[in-house]
UniProtKB/TrEMBL annotation:
Record-listed E.C. numbers: 3.2.1.52
Family: Belongs to the glycosyl hydrolase 20 family.
Protein name: beta-N-acetylhexosaminidase
Protein species of origin: Luteimonas endophytica
First and last residue of the signal peptide: 1-29
Length: 784
């Protein structure tokens, strides 16, 4: 029996077929609309792209009656994954059997004696009567199952049903380490959410889940011998209103940890999908949650709280023998829980101030004959390595473990660029490339105002895709040390699983292709043509990817009585638009050049591929009033504001949506470049206030404050840039209004009609900070 699709699923799948058909055409509008009748190209379906694919003639039709044969437990496991995916995405209820005595159908075979090109390699042959997926190893067969599932076309409900196009595929991964790191310390994900991510990783053919389980803000792994680690270290009181019950004023802790039973369950779940879990226990820094639980582990012995601030914090483990024994006892339980080869011990961002200030640590350093604190950290990490190596494991750490000397067998995860990886490889160590500038998924993916909180210094889909893990400058004989590549999601700003998914998808698809596909088969435009099919698949599998890369953004320039509107899709998909308020469709005007429109104007626009809108149409309304407003997202950053632009959310309400602000935390200043002040008499500003919850460590002196000249500081407006004359000064109240915002107005006495307006909050307002939400120019002077 063919199970009927839900109307939503059917719509998605019809869309998928159209997109697959469109995926071989150029990435422009010329292909739109004419594809409904085209035969879908099998290559169009696959992310990551395989090593080799040859399309054949005809198709293999599937129904619930299609036999799926698999001999032995390993082959059956791969077949069952295929059947489960097909059931979810295509409503096909396939039964997996041994296939004894039944001809035809789909066969999953492990042929241990055959040479497929490695244990993760596989082959697929689809012919009109039979389908065979084969590999030498269960891993390869699993990846074959994923590819076969991606090849499914059509819809169980429609004429023609579900089919596989005739094709031959041979495939094997480029890298053995295809990783994704999730920070479960800053924000915590449920076991079910972790499993959803593992499932998605597996469907991207990724095979290492690096699980960041401990940090200053939370210890999230149960250690039986030291229960306070999870019970005390697993709870923090969030900063500001987010940590207070508005009804009672009582603290509202943010708590969570994974029990050992849950961890075993997750590790087993990952293993079924051929994913190794690499746990991270971060030492000697990022230690505050552990020290909060057991103050004797700290350098000062003082009781500290689990940290509720972000950034780089000073708390380190001390270097007493008892602390090493403690950490070894922790690692002993970690090793029991995680059967994989690698254990990650962090090593990052351990500022050494506490060690430098401690007589006891300094005395210990001298006893050990160590020259400096870098050598002491190296000693610390080597001690961890000795313990792990004795248990048959390997240590991996962030690239700071190079400082002071690497432990003999350590593997290095290069995050501060690729230089640490190059250096480690030259020293003969294995490396995993995960540079923050290209592969950190908490960096936002577009400049859309609809992005969630994160780091607006962008890591675009294209950057992830184009990252080359093997540096061309690395000597040929050292290149084998590059084990692979990994994307990392830090979760300071990812409070919900919805946000986690937004950051991860679809950039994980780009990572997958970087990690899997041979360098000479990678091609960004081809990837973009396949991406819409991947997006449909995400949705069919219950994943909510980011839609911001598929939106249409509008940049408007105000003219007299008219507006010039430039439209763009962040990924460069063709844009279609309407000016009459109607929904843009595949027949709507294609955007080619900026539009000059009389005011008022309404532009509705969507990006299209294969005649299908890639996201709901954006509606942009332009009138005299809207053109005189800039939100914080539309404002620029000021010169000399430090490196750190953040997109931060308000601390309240406790539940539900919170306001989001773009702010440079070193210097709260915003720039409206080329503001058109002709006819403008005044300015209105809406501002909010959020907790200042950052530890900047050695960057602290780079924070700048303009001195305040009134009790609570003021918002200073300068024209001609941030060195120009003050054109308005708006004194600030002691606190915002009940809704968390203030609205201030001041007359404006500009010196020029078109000028850079610089808006700065004065004073050191910590532990809170004012943040700009919106600036509105108010006309009053008649235009000449
Ligand atoms: C890191 O981003 N601190 C490894």
């Amino acid at each position: 029996m063919i199970r009927a699709c839900s109307p939503l699923l059917r719509t998605l799948l019809i869309g998928l077929a159209v997109l697959l058909a469109a995926a071989c055409g150029p990435l422009d509008a010329a292909s739109a609309g004419a594809e409904e009748t085209a035969v879908p190209d099998p290559a169009a379906a696959l992310v990551p792209a395989p090593v080799s694919l040859r399309a054949g003639d005809g198709r293999f039709a599937l129904s619930a009656a299609t036999p799926v044969h698999a001999e032995g437990a390993d082959a059956a496991a791969a077949a069952r994954h295929f059947a489960a995916y097909a059931a979810r995405s295509h409503g096909l209820a396939l039964e997996v059997g041994s296939g004894q005595g039944r001809a035809g159908g789909i066969r999953f075979d492990i042929d241990a004696g055959a040479d497929f090109g490695g244990p993760e390699a596989y082959a697929i042959e689809v012919a009109p009567e039979t389908v065979r997926v084969s590999a030498a190893d269960p891993r390869g067969l699993f990846y074959g199952a994923v590819t076969l599932w991606q090849l499914l076309q059509g819809d169980a409900d429609r004429t023609g049903g579900v089919a596989l196009p005739a094709v031959r595929i041979q495939d094997a991964p480029r890298f053995g380490w295809r990783g994704f790191m999730l920070d479960s310390a800053r924000h915590f994900q449920s076991v079910e959410e972790i499993k959803q991510l593992l499932d998605a990783m597996a469907r991207h053919k990724l095979n290492v889940f690096h699980w960041h389980l401990t940090d200053d803000q939370g210890w999230r792994i149960e250690i039986r011998r030291y229960p306070r680690l999870a019970e005390v270290g697993g709870c923090r009181i969030p900063a500001g209103d987010g940590g207070v019950d508005p009804g009672t004023g009582a603290p509202v802790p943010y708590c969570g940890y994974y029990t050992q039973a849950q961890i075993r369950d997750i590790v087993a779940y990952a293993a079924e999908r051929h994913i190794t879990v690499v746990p991270e226990i971060d030492v000697p820094g990022h230690a505050q949650a552990a020290v909060a639980a057991y103050p004797e582990l700290g350098v000062t012995g003082e009781q500290v709280e689990v940290l509720n601030e972000w950034g780089v914090n000073q708390t380190l483990f001390n270097v007493e023998e008892s602390t090493f024994e403690f950490l070894e006892n922790v690692l002993a339980e970690v090793v029991e829980l995680f059967p994989g080869t690698y254990i990650h011990v962090g090593g990052d961002e351990a500022v050494k101030d506490q060690w430098q200030a401690s007589e006891r640590v300094q005395a210990r350093m001298r006893e050990l004959g160590l020259a400096d604190e870098a050598a002491l950290q190296s000693h610390f990490i080597k001690r961890m390595e000795r313990f792990l190596v004795a248990r048959g494991r390997r240590l991996i750490g962030w690239d700071e473990i190079l400082e002071g000397g690497l432990p003999p067998e350590a593997t290095v995860m290069s995050w501060r660029g690729i230089e640490g990886g190059i250096e480690a490889a030259r020293q003969g160590h294995d490396v995993v490339m995960t540079p923050s500038s290209e592969l950190y998924l908490d960096y936002l993916q577009t400049d859309s105002p609809n992005e969630p909180p994160g780091r607006p210094a962008m890591v675009t889909l294209e950057q992830v895709y184009r990252f080359e893990p093997v540096p061309p400058g690395l000597e040929a004989e050292r290149r084998m040390h590059v084990l692979g590549v990994q994307a990392n999601l830090w979760t300071e700003h990812a409070r919900t699983f919805e946000r986690v998914q937004h950051h991860v998808f679809p950039r994980l698809a780009a990572l997958a292709e970087t990690a899997w596909t041979p360098a000479d088969r990678r091609e960004y435009d081809g990837f973009l043509r396949r991406l819409p099919a991947q997006m449909q698949r995400y949705r069919a599998m219950g994943i909510e990817p980011a839609t911001t890369p598929f939106e249409v953004l509008a940049d408007a320039t105000r003219n007299r009585g008219s507006v010039t509107v430039a439209l763009r899709n962040p990924l460069g998909y063709p844009v279609r638009y309407t000016l009459d308020g109607s929904e843009p469709g595949p027949g709507s005007a294609i955007y080619r050049a900026p539009l000059d429109l009389a005011l008022p104007a309404t532009v509705r626009a969507a990006a299209f591929h294969g005649g299908v809108a890639l996201a709901p149409a954006a509606t942009h309304v332009f009138d005299d009033a809207s053109l005189l407003v800039r939100t914080d997202e539309q404002l620029g950053t000021c010169p000399d504001t430090g490196r750190l632009l953040l997109r931060l959310e308000d601390d309240g309400p406790l539940h539900g949506e919170r306001a989001i602000f773009n702010v440079t935390i070193f210097y709260p200043c915003w720039l409206w470049p080329e503001a058109d002040l002709e006819g403008i008499a005044a300015l209105e500003v809406r501002a909010g206030r959020i907790p200042y919850y950052f530890q900047l460590a050695h960057d602290e002196p780079n924070r700048k404050f303009l001195p305040a000249s009134t009790a609570h500081g003021e918002l200073v407006v300068q024209s001609g840039g941030c060195q120009g004359p003050r054109v308005a000064t708006l004194p600030l109240p002691a606190k915002p209004d009940a809704d968390g915002f203030i609205t201030l107005r001041a007359p404006l006495t500009p010196t020029a009609d078109r000028t850079d307006l610089c808006l700065t909050f004065t004073g050191d307002t910590r532990p809170t900070m004012w943040v700009l939400d919106r600036v509105r120019l108010l006309p009053g002077r008649p235009r000449p």
